[in-house]
Amino acid sequence: MSSVGHARQAGRPPGDCLVVVTPRSFGVDDPGLRRELEQAVAEVRYRPGPLGSNELAEAVAGADALLAGLDEVSAQVFAAAPRLRVVARYGVGTDRVDLAAAARCGVTVTTTPGANANAVAELTMALLFALARPLVSGRDRVRAGEWPALHGMELAGKTLGLVGLGRIGSLVARKAAALGMRVLAHDPNVVASDLAAMVDLDVLGAECDFVSLHAPLTTETRGMVGKRFLGNLKPGTALVNTARGQLIDESALLWALEEGHLRAAALDVLAQEPPSPGHPLLGRDDVVVTPHIGPHTAEATAAMGRMALDELLAVLSGRAPRFVVTVPAGLANPRREQEKRTDPLFERVEKEA
After folding, report:
1. Which of 110, 147, 179, 286 could form a disulfide with 264 if both were Cys (CB 3.0 to 4.6 A apart)?
2. DSSP designation for 324
3. Is there a catalytic annotation at residue 182?
4. Does domain 2-115+296-347 have CATH number 3.40.50.720?
């Protein structure tokens, strides 16, 4: 693996640079981050995203750096920004960044690994509780004037299956074990772990009461939760997804709910965000959908902002950033090599803002 080079490293000093910022929460919980950025560079343009490729291409024309959220950073964007030297991702996922185009253009891409891991892990636990106890329906029925006797289940003694045992998955494993849950996990990059019993996907599906997704979105994992996966689940299983919406084939998920292969689902992410009106999963009583809130805690956004800012300023100042995204050999710009980061595939799954 070779890391993304940045042939544009020898550009203007930070004090002469234009930076575009798209994450809405950047600096909200730590206003000092915005002040620091504004004092370090010539101009900062805030363009609240996420932006599509066309909007972003227009926004970054003439920019030296992009502090990016969930924007579509396509080849079109790099072509429109000949001065661009760094894309500092405010989060970890890079499935919306054309890394090959970045490499060809000599643009460094960085991420913020671990900054929001606990926030997403805690939301995962909250969604597990929401699937175990009728919190949402109980609230709705009380609001309607009822006072029903509603039953649920305890998490203690139940089996949780984790698809992915990176930073977030490991935190979920610890929290679940503390509640008395048995934890199984599947991760092609982890042979053995003290946190969970490592099993293949068929075993995980057959034995678990709850399954939680913590895998990155790649060519191999896109749509991995399809009819085969869902059809192999133990009857009564519930599914949580706080990773990437595209991991799930949503038509297969609907099928599994209707056919009874799946008891319920809690989703913080969908394939399309926001979903289109009338999305078939939104009106179901056996599905809880939250609007991609996993990373949105004061602590996580401040940590992501700090790391993204440090990476961005490092590149503009000619220093080696700490968390450069790697791309397959042959794609990196041959004129300059950056420091490598060797996170396992399933470790790069933490949520973005």
Report:
1. 286
2. B
3. no
4. yes
- What is the per-residue pLDDT across 151-205, written as a single tens digit (0 to 9) for each? 999 999 999 999 999 999 999 999 999 999 999 999 999 999 999 999 999 999 9
Place 311 in a pLDDT band, splitting at 50, 70 and 90. Answer: very high
186 as an active site residue: the answer is no
Residue 347 pLDDT = 39
The catalytic position among 6, 292, 296, 348 is: 292
Would you call 292 a catalytic residue per the annotation?
yes
* Residue 62 structure tokens: 């003439």
- The reported pTM is 0.83
Select which of 6, 8, 104, 244 is catalytic.
244
| Sequence spans of domains, the chain | 2-115+296-347, 117-289
Question: Where are the strands (E) in 112-175, listed by range?
Answer: 159-163
CATH architecture classification, 117-289: 3-Layer(aba) Sandwich (3.40)
Say which DSSP state 7 is in. Answer: G
Q: Report the relative pairing of strands 197-198 and 210-213 from DSSP bridges.
A: unpaired
CA 122, 124, 129 angle in degrees (round to 5)? 95
